[in-house]
User: What shape does this take?
Amino acid sequence: MKLNITQKLNRLAELMDDIATDREGFAPEKAPHLAALAEIQKREDETVAHLAIEAADLTAKIKTETVAAQQTTHGHSLMAVYAKGRVTWDGKGLDGYAVANPEVAAFRRVGEPSVSIREVKK
Assistant: This one.
């Protein structure tokens, strides 16, 4: 029997629920270790906090200077890639303009459709 899209979505939801339930089954096994893990995570965060702040500050400076230089710059293991600003158009405005000026429609391109799976808000 071939399933329609609604049936497939419902099966996908069942599978996702089963995965969540199976993961929850491991919770009792994990519980004794969570407090120790939280303490380790706290110490780790404290240890690297100043480095993370310095890295964020340096990243911002690199980005600002790269935009000013308008060129990609290479380091030993990282590079700051410069990309020109993207050109965008007012689609609604151009569609309206194309009604009065049909020759503009020759420059219109439509990309491939895409699908994202999202949870239904209840």
User: Anything to note?
Assistant: The chain has one domain: 5-107. The mean pLDDT is 94.
